[in-house]
Amino acid sequence: MQDQENMDGMDLDVLTEIANIGAGNAVTALSQMISNKIDMHVPKVKMLTFSELSEILGGPEALVAGIMVSLEADIEGYMLFMLENESAHHLVSQLMGQQPPAEAPEIFSEIEQSALMEIGNIITGAYLNSISKMTELNIKTSIPYIAIDMAGAILSVPAIEFGKLGDKALLIESRFRDMDIDISGYFIMIPTMESYQAILKALGIG
Q1: Side-chain half-sphere of 18: how many Cα atoms within 13 Å?
Q2: What are 145-193's pLDDT values in tens digits?
């Protein structure tokens, strides 16, 4: 596998399987965190351009909450966990033991941002830990960075950083149900091509 364009079906199948396991572990961690059973649909895994990612999230001007960490050591790049505004408010309310607002506001209080950061930190950690165990690769992360902004603005950060390496990212769309509310969470993995190759090599492929 030389680049993103030449990634074959087997490569994507392997990355899809890793994504499914990672997303499952992350949702389990989230369920334990908010002390409530969460049912997850089978994640959808796609290799998309950054402009396509914005459309999946509701368009570049859609308001989303994003928690981003940079990846270091054996795997380099970025990982983002993004939630639509309403879903983010619902999860924060669950964690804080409050009733979700009837209409989600466009802002989060400082305490709510802290809770959202904790949610993002726990589930990205659970996701990456599962990848690390499967591949036996050392994955270190930066301190999480939180942003509540338009989808296009949040995605512009990794797009600028990795535009010279390729314009695609691995999107894991995880739909899960908390109580009677459907929530869409989006894990976005943006490793360098060397990191993609390291993952596949660790699994005996490539």
Answers
A1: 26
A2: 888 888 888 888 777 766 655 567 888 887 776 666 777 788 888 887 7
**Burial of residue 16, with CB atoms counted within 10 A of its CB: 0-12 exposed, 13-18 middle, 19 or more buried:** middle
Residue 189 and residue 69 in contact, taking contact as beta carbons nearer than 8 Å? no
> Do 203 and 135 contact (CB within 8 A), yes or no?
yes
Q: What is the pLDDT of residues 108-147, one digit of tens each?
A: 888 888 888 888 888 888 888 888 888 899 999 888 888 8
Domains along the chain?
4-202 (3.40.1550.10)
Q: What count of residues does the chain have? A: 206
Q: Residue 184 phi/psi, 5° resolution?
A: -110, 120
Is this model's pTM higher than 0.85 or not?
no
